[in-house]
Design a protein that fits this description.
With 163 residues, the protein is mainly α. The protein has a domain of 92 residues. A two-stranded antiparallel sheet has the order 1-2. It is elongated and about 70 Å long. The relative contact order is 0.17. The structure holds zinc ion. The site of zinc ion has 4 residues, from α5.
């Protein structure tokens, strides 16, 4: 996942939190607080319901796309700029990072679920899928870097930044 993707994800989560407050209903005197449906009025549900299972599968799929597209990017000679090339080129480590990203996303969803923020719980996965798929498409659309070899020195340089 690239820096703009991470930034977009963080901004989206923060923006979602702000919108959540605007949706909260003011408590009525003497009325009991709803237990697990604080922000959206949606009824409480089991964490591992069909919708979350589908969303988490989507997050896992998006992370797999990120893995494949980043490997494609590296095979084309481009550099990863969020992680180091050394990390990305270590395939077992990179797979572990993608799995950890999926687990972290599920963990964030669980925290939102436990705190009664069920809309944010779902949006965490939706945003993660969107950012992952968008980043993967971008990775596949990148062109290989232009390499210039200077005859006198044999020094190679990448001109990717000039395109
Ligand atoms: Zn929930």
């Amino acid at each position: 996942m690239s820096k703009p993707q991470i930034l977009f994800l963080a901004i989206s989560v923060v923006a979602g939190c702000g919108g959540l407050r605007a949706q909260e209903n003011l408590p009525t005197a003497g009325a009991p607080e709803p237990k697990l449906a604080a922000e959206s009025g949606t009824p409480a549900h089991k964490f591992w319901d069909a919708e979350n299972i589908a969303l988490f599968a989507g997050v896992g799929g998006a992370r797999m796309m990120d893995y494949a597209s980043t490997r494609h990017l590296r095979d084309e000679g481009n550099d990863e700029w969020l992680l180091t090339d050394r990390i990305v080129d270590n395939r077992p480590l990179f797979v572990g990072i993608e799995l950890a990203g999926t687990a972290a996303s599920i963990g964030v969803s669980y925290l939102f679920h436990r705190s009664g923020h069920h809309t944010l719980e779902r949006w965490t996965s939706v945003i993660h899928i969107g950012v992952g798929v968008g980043g993967s498409v971008r990775n596949y659309l990148l062109k290989p870097p232009t390499v210039v070899v200077t005859p006198a020195t044999g020094f190679q340089t990448s001109l990717t930044f000039l395109r």
